[in-house]
């Protein structure tokens, strides 16, 4: 019996494989060198592709960095875990997911990259992080809610601050709290942004 490619689970195309190789190479380089120190030519060489393909697939080095962040967020499975969850539980679960994703030992390379990004350009990290998180959050908010994009942006900004203070900077009393303490403190604020009255 022949074993062809399943239509429900097709093999990645050449373009998809190339794109993934570029993201892999960029993630590795960004994990131990500053964003501005890594060149497009180096990324292309590490990925085994023409550097011009980076601009073809991602538009710019900033676009590639966004894709690296986006893949890391997707790897947490957050969207799948939040899908179908009662709206009233989204805030607490989002905080738990952020804590689990950023506190995991396997995120060491990712954390190193984020620390460098913060030191080099806090605005870049904030803009990219909120952009990626906002898109993910909008997709899980109930469609009947008003101001869904605004709600997602507000929640994303709160989570970005949480991650920055606890896992990137890692200083102060806030960084010493355990996960459930953080959930009890931050979860209600995230929940209000997601489903509460915004007054706008």
TrEMBL record:
Keyword Metal-binding listed: no
Keyword ATP-binding: no
Superkingdom of this protein's organism: Bacteria
PROSITE patterns: HTH_TETR_2
Recorded GO MF terms: DNA-binding transcription factor activity; transcription cis-regulatory region binding
SUPFAM superfamilies with a match to the protein in the record: Homeodomain-like, Tetracyclin repressor-like, C-terminal domain
Ranges for domain HTH tetR-type: 16-76
Keyword vocabulary terms for this entry: DNA-binding
Pfam families: TetR_C_16, TetR_N
Ranges annotated as DNA-binding: 39-58
InterPro entries: Homeodomain-like_sf, HTH-type_TetR-like_transc_reg, HTH_TetR, Tet_transcr_reg_TetR-rel_C_sf, TetR_C_16
UniProt-recorded name of the protein: HTH tetR-type domain-containing protein
């Amino acid at each position: 019996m022949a074993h062809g490619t399943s239509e429900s689970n097709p093999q990645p195309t050449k373009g998809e494989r190339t794109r993934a190789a570029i993201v892999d190479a960029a993630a590795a380089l960004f994990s131990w060198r500053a964003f501005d120190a890594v060149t497009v030519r180096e990324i292309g060489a590490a990925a085994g592709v023409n550097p011009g393909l980076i601009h073809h697939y991602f538009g710019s080095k900033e676009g590639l960095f966004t894709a690296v962040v986006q893949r890391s967020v997707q790897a947490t499975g957050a969207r799948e875990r939040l899908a179908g969850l009662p709206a009233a539980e989204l805030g607490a679960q989002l905080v738990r997911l952020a804590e689990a994703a950023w506190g995991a030992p396997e995120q060491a390379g990712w954390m190193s990259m984020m620390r460098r990004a913060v030191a080099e350009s806090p605005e870049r990290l904030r803009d990219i992080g909120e952009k990626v998180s906002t898109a993910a959050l909008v997709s899980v908010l109930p469609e009947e809610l008003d101001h869904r994009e605004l709600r997602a942006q507000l929640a994303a900004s709160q989570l970005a601050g949480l991650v920055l203070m606890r896992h990137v900077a890692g200083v102060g009393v806030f960084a010493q709290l355990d996960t459930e303490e953080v959930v009890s403190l931050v979860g209600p604020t995230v929940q209000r942004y997601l489903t509460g009255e915004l007054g706008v």
